[in-house]
TrEMBL record:
Residues given in the record as FMN binding sites: 9-11, 35, 86-89, 121
Documented EC number(s): 2.5.1.129
Domain Flavoprotein: 1-171
Domain of life: Bacteria
Name of this protein: Flavin prenyltransferase UbiX
NCBIfam families per the UniProt record, alphabetical: PRK06029.1, ubiX_pad
SUPFAM superfamilies the UniProt entry points to: Homo-oligomeric flavin-containing Cys decarboxylases, HFCD
Family under the similarity heading: Belongs to the UbiX/PAD1 family.
Annotated positions binding dimethylallyl phosphate: 151, 167
Gene Ontology MF, one: carboxy-lyase activity
Alphabetized UniProt keyword annotations: Flavoprotein, FMN, Prenyltransferase, Transferase
Catalytic activity: dimethylallyl phosphate + FMNH2 = prenylated FMNH2 + phosphate
Length: 197
């Protein structure tokens, strides 16, 4: 399975890196695009080198290479993930401004009706951000802010990253055991018993 992964310059570069690590374990073919701002964020926020990150991917393209394979609809893949997705990248994609490879690859993913998952990273959201997200959501783009779940009782930051990565895998139709799944029936039975006491 071939997936395009873009890491933009928003804080939270580890979301993209952790996805990349789990994707490699799962045997996925990852086409990686890093923005220039992402490279700076990775250096500031993580202990990963760009060399290590590039080695995790099947291949890596420069964000300025508008002629790279992911810029064409004839380049077949099973989905694209932008993790994290900055508001600048969100705005460009929502408005069809394909000025770099990340934006163009996302534009192509939308026009070819392939799955696009965007881990939008900002808080609070302004009305402009929300309008851009709504516009893309109506086109079928999955808007997925990296909000941690706590019903799985995470003990470490890695637990939070694993859960989010598993949820991205779910959106792409990739079977995984990364997600601690909600056991709704068991929870209801427990709650019913507690209320009956």
């Amino acid at each position: 399975m071939k997936i395009v992964l873009a890491i933009s310059g928003a804080t939270g570069a580890l979301y993209g890196i952790k996805f990349l690590e789990e994707a490699k374990k799962a045997g996925l073919e990852i086409q990686l695009i890093l923005s220039d701002s992402a490279k700076k964020t990775i250096e500031l926020e993580t202990d990963y080198s760009l060399e290590v990150i590039n080695e995790l991917a099947s291949c890596q393209f420069s964000n300025s290479d508008i002629g790279a394979p992911p810029a064409s609809g004839s380049f077949l893949h099973q989905g694209m993930v932008i993790a994290p997705c900055s508001m600048k990248t969100l705005s460009a994609i929502a408005n069809g401004y394909a000025g770099n490879l990340i934006n163009r690859a996302a534009d192509v993913t939308i026009k070819e009706r392939r799955k696009l998952v965007m881990l939008v990273r900002e808080t609070p959201f302004s009305p402009i951000h929300l309008e851009n997200m709504l516009k893309l959501s109506r086109l079928g783009v999955v808007i997925m802010p990296p909000i941690p779940s706590f019903y799985n009782k995470p003990n470490t930051i890695d637990d939070i990253f694993r859960q989010m990565t598993g949820r991205i895998f779910d959106q792409l139709g990739i079977e995984n055991n990364l997600v601690n799944r909600w056991a709704a029936t068991a929870q209801r039975l427990t709650l019913t018993k507690e209320l009956a006491v």
